[in-house]
Amino acid sequence: MKKKIAILGSTGSIGKTTVEIIKNDKKSFDVILLTTNNNFREISKQIKYLKPKNLVINNKKIYFKLKRKYKKINIFNNFDLFFKKFDRKIDYSISAISGLSGLQPTLDIIKYTKNVAIANKESIICAWNLIEKELKKNKTKFIPVDSEHFSIWYLLKNKKIQSVEEIIITASGGPFLNWKLNNIKKAKPEFAIKHPNWSMGKKISIDSATMMNKVFELIEAQRIFNLDRSKFTILIHPQSLVHAIVKFENGLTKLLIHDTNMKIPIFNSIYHNTNKKLKSKKLGFDHLNSLVFKKIDLKKFPSMNILKYLPSKISLFETIIVSCNDELVDLFLRKKINFWSIHLILKKLLNMKEFTKYKQITPNNTRQIYELCEYVRLKTRALSIISAK
Ligand code: NDP
Ligand code: MG
């Protein structure tokens, strides 16, 4: 029987990689849902070769354009309308919308899917407690797709979480690993966006350049695996071949290696528990001989200090970090602030007295998260104007 599948954010970097995998095995899948925002050309191509049953298109103009062109597909402008009409179970869904816009759709799709692979790290960081509740309620299985978290999840298969002594998450170091501090401070978006190893969306590429991505990944790992921060170490590993290392209490250490291609974790989340083969590069002797690990230079990557601000349990403070950083990355990409201001303004905002109380507040619902996000975005814009003067 064909596997029913949904791809949220099908036109993005993760979404397109997922589509590529499905395209190569079309006879095994029935595409129930694709969702996107602006990218008319890409979604039109995907409609042609995947023949999806339903589309959710966030951008109104694109929605009307598609609705006029494709009369036989159910096309919706928002998730609520789609879910009102939908009452079946999907076999596999991937949540790959960028930013907090992906949170509500992720929570919604969990109700309708047997397996959910989550790439959208913002929803895990800000609302893991809400996600976990939905997973349990709907008996939905979860697979993390961020490569480090997929690796840890894979290494922990059939292991008790209590047997873990230490987990090392690796970081490539991004495009500025070997740049001088003074040059990093003045770096332009076109350089910040060029990741040496991975091809990713713009936002996450900038987070890799500032290393905020690792701050986010550590929080993500803490939540998913329910482990104390003291169990985690982040190490620079410029080759990005080893994605995670797990040391167990019995003295054994396992590590997971794969090419720098998101196709591998996504493929393995789709074909989990099957013997499906994926062609991948040979792991050459040269590669193994060049594995390097080193500590992070906090002078070059001061964003890592943000970890000190974090409460150990999930709180609304994470929404503040995510929203402020998101706004700052957007301002940087639009050349409104410089690269170094990203961490300076973030630090300034996190030190504001009015935000401290959120460290004690557990998120209860998405409305609370979205309202706080909007407020923080406004505050961030105001701070960025002051700091530009
Ligand atoms: P992209 O920016 O490449 O793609 C984002 C996708 O989300 C696009 O399909 C976009 O549509 C859609 N989208 C954006 N806003 C909305 C909205 N308001 N409503 C509906 N759809 C929307 O992002 P990535 O693929 O790089 O990342 C996706 C998520 O996965 C992020 O949370 C990221 O942190 C995480 N991740 C990404 C990795 C990577 O290698 N790229 C690795 C690990 C995690 P459109 O194209 O039409 O604008
Ligand atoms: Mg990652």
What does this structure look like?
Strand 3 (54-57), helix 3 and strand 4 (74-76) form a beta-alpha-beta unit. The mean pLDDT is 95. The protein folds into three domains: 3-144, NAD(P)-binding Rossmann-like Domain (Rossmann fold, 3-Layer(aba) Sandwich); 145-258 and 267-299; 311-389, RNA polymerase sigma factor, region 2, helix turn helix motif (Rna Polymerase Sigma Factor, Chain: A, Orthogonal Bundle). The strands form two sheets. The chain has a seven-stranded parallel beta sheet, with helices on both faces. A four-stranded mixed beta sheet has the order 9-8-10-11, covered by helices on one side. The chain has helices spanning 13-23, 40-50, 60-69, 79-85, 103-112, 121-138, 147-155, 181-185, 189-192, 202-210, 212-225, 263-270, 285-289, 317-333, 339-350, 353-356, 366-388, and strands at 3-8, 29-36, 54-57, 74-76, 90-95, 113-118, 141-144, 164-171, 232-236, 242-248, 253-257. With 389 residues, the protein is α/β, with parallel strands linked by helices. The protein binds NADPH dihydro-nicotinamide-adenine-dinucleotide phosphate and magnesium ion. Residues 146-148, 217 line the site of magnesium ion.
